[in-house]
Amino acid sequence: MVDTMALLSALLRTARMTRRASLPDAPPPADDEAVLDAPDDRLAPALVAAARGEYTAARDLLDATRAAAEWEDRDRYVTGLAAFARSRPGWLDAWRAAAPEDQGALLVAAQLAVDRAWPSPARSELLREVSPLITAAARADDRDPVPWRIALDHARGSSAGHRYFEELWEAAVRRAPHHHGCHVAALRYLATFWHGSHHECFDFAELAAQDAAPESLVQGLPVRAAFGYLADVCGPDVPRERLDAAADRAVALSGRLPAADPRAAEFRNQLLYVLLRLERWEDARAQLPLIGPYATSSPWSRMSEDALGLFLGLRESLRGQAPKAAVARLLPAPPRPGGDLRGRGTAPDH
Known about the structure:
Blueprint: H1 2-13, E1 35-36, H2 43-51, H3 56-67, H4 71-87, H5 89-98, H6 103-117, H7 123-128, H8 131-140, H9 146-157, H10 162-175, H11 180-193, H12 198-211, H13 221-230, H14 240-256, H15 265-277, H16 281-291, E2 294-295, H17 297-300, H18 307-319, H19 323-330
Parallel strand pairs: 1-2
Helix pairs in contact: 1-10, 1-12, 2-3, 2-4, 3-4, 4-5, 4-6, 6-8, 6-9, 8-9, 9-10, 9-11, 11-12, 11-13, 12-13, 13-14, 13-15, 14-15, 15-16, 18-19
């Protein structure tokens, strides 16, 4: 626990600067037909071009985000392009062959290499081979926090010690003090390195949220900590009041962000999970039009191989008059020793 608190103090100490974050207006809400992990209207054309084997649209998109310092969008686009390249690696190979020093191509390649290594039993060994790619991407633009977010994930996957992780974290927040992806990477490291350390995760998430701008997704970090706790079967109980406070903060943030915005989709899907587990039915129903058609793999793929089907089933149950039994059937709570949330301030069924 001493090591845990030392890391927690280090993470918080280097992230106390403030910066206002802004999100551009979202496209108008789409129809009711949900899709899984849908790209936004900037990434979609790049993926369509990539499907034709063309990389210039992806290159131009990442160049534009770098020029405008749109680090949150840049991070999501790198992740989306790497997911595409996982099934169509020849597209990325052609890009890198044509422009071996292109930072966008280096970033996508580094993300792809981490993604490929992650499910392997030899993950640590495979990730060691990725380090030069991440280093090259980081050197291409000293302002960019995205290579450092990839480095933080890389450190977690390779079970790096907390002193090394602190150094990476310090470098990341020096570039972007409230970069959402880097904060998520730090929270995941805390949760992974000390399995069951939910109170420490909440401490980090709550203090980070306090320093974040009102519309920053970092405001939603406590609800991600709540999701980690509710989906886990390990560690001490977290008081219901702390879970509700995380949900309340996230509900307020969701209300400030544009409706049916793919940029907030994963945050809202995780919030929906937390609200369902807390049996806050009216708050959960209110998230449905804000989510719109944008279902995301996280958190639903953790509970089902058919993430979209689970989301649709839960959505339909919420639209009914008595969701409690249906939600319990679709989303059974993992067993926690003594960890029964019911009867501790939950909202009544409607």
